[in-house]
């Protein structure tokens, strides 16, 4: 099973009191894709693979046509070694994939990830700025921007 660095999402009991999206930059109960590698002591996000599978199921609705095996391989490389490797996916694209997955899961009636849509939008925007500032993996920047636009304007 593939895992992504982040925090474990709150249980339904914990999140029932926080139905509104929180947009504080330090939301500890929100999952995240770290640009660092697999740091020691970092909790893992167990449902990263689920979000990737949801994204792959709906990617054609975004007109996102890529070689699936290569895309998944690059995504998995990011999960294994983090963003330091130029061969891995930029965190902006990882977060955009999770954003789209949350969006389409919610639209299809699966509310498990609905509350994380705002979080992943914020993380995508932050990482897009980082990518553009450093001129880092600009192809991933274009893909992530396009995916974020699908969520914002569709």
From TrEMBL:
Q: Where is this region: Disordered?
A: 1-42
Q: Where is the composition biased (Low complexity)?
A: 7-24
Query: What's this protein's name?
Result: Uncharacterized protein
Q: Which organism is it from?
A: Hydnum rufescens UP504
Its lineage opens with: Eukaryota, Fungi, Dikarya, Basidiomycota, Agaricomycotina
